[in-house]
Amino acid sequence: MINPFAFVGRVVLDFFQTIGSVAVFAFMGLSHAVRPPFFWRNYMRHFIEIGYLSLPVVALTTLFSGMVLALQSYSGFSRFSAEGAVAMVVALSITRELAPVLAGLMVAGRIGAAMAAEIGTMRVTEQIDALEALSTNPYSYLVAPRLIAGILMMPFLVAVGDIIGVMGGYIVGVYKLGFNSAAYLQQTWDVLETEDVVSGLVKAAVYGFIVTLMGCYHGYRSTGGAQGVGRATTQAVVSSAILILIANYFVTELFFTK
Amino acid sequence: MLKIQGLTKSFGDNHVLRGIDLEIERGDSLVILGGSGSGKSVTLKCIMGFIHPDAGTITLDGDNLVGLEGRARSAMNQRVGMLFQHAALLDSLPVWENVMFAPLRFGRVSRREARKAAVGWLERVGLDEAIAGILPGELATGAQKRIGLARAIAAEPELLLFDEPTTGLDALVGRQIDALIRSTITDMGATAITITHDIDSARRVGDHVAMLYQGQIAWSGPAANLMQSGDPVVDQFVHGRLTGPIPVPALPEARA
Hints:
The structure holds 2 protein chains of 2 kinds. Chain A has 9 helices and no strands.
């Protein structure tokens, strides 16, 4: 018969063990990002992979989110004659929330999964052992470039997503809902404050760190052949998505709680 | 000289190594023979530092190999080359970068020089220059093993480790790999350890053979004496007998 106290204790211990393990992994990865050797080709590869090759998916996501937001807020606000707030809602929602969160989730699916699969495959095919045999620290070679690329490239992606998302709202607002073009842009410009954009970019950096950390961590620790790599990939995406949503609350509170 | 004394390693209740003692003279080739789960791979991983032994010492020309971390481990690994069981080539790098990974990593050569040198190493293991620019995943297992061998020797190490070099290869390619290993050891004058359960390969590659059984060295001697060792464990293993001191699980009787 299962002892309920032992069961709860085991779950709690496993939870803290995982947190500790992730924290140590993150520390090792980041510490190797600030000390030589630096594998610049790997850094460039991941900068391009995250910052450039993820652009289409982030652009499409934010474009249609901005468009939908304009439509939804117009139909909602028209109930109490507040249609004029559409530009404001689109600009604030996109820059503060939608662009960073949607970009984070998209990159988690695209990059986090790929990282977990690649590193997991390297683990089960002894390529990580081979790196060590070749006097190369896997944290320097594999983890640090990915973490830094995630932290630096996600804000770039979100900045582009901000512009495209706002333009999505503009397209619907001006060409479908009949807003005046100049007035829409002016209202957007007037309502946006530096803090709105900066908070979104900080969130992006945090999400970039989360996605790459989860991808690397789960891949690095994968065991058991193809099945283990598949499991690592799933865990990387699921844990990234959950942590992004949790971190979203805390970063928002950090910026906007007076 | 590589010296292993009292090497012990357990995983929970599974006592894999129970005090291994081995001495390999410089330039000598030792084959560690043994069945699945006998502790061959664990021994090799202890030498490479992938696994920390519970007890015992390993020294290379008097320098300790156990418990090294960071730069000390990195410096020691530059003195050791390893051919992995499935080659373990970095599949994101072309063949020539795999071969010259260590020299490039330590800035000993420019990329142009490295590419040129890689072609020389590839030719040495019987491969054509044409494959230098392609990714390892596009090549057959035998070619991957050769590239793994080229990578292991490109840093000109003092100690060479070969993990099941003929596993997964047909008899002809396996024979070629053995011949390459043998000539490499002779040409470089490196100390070599090969782990395998392939008897023919062991006789071709080794000067000496050590038989690992139940975590201990059951027998060791010249490779030429392997087939007439007089040891019942070695005798059963090398002749593939189903009866003897090594327990063999009974199979269900074949249906008529």
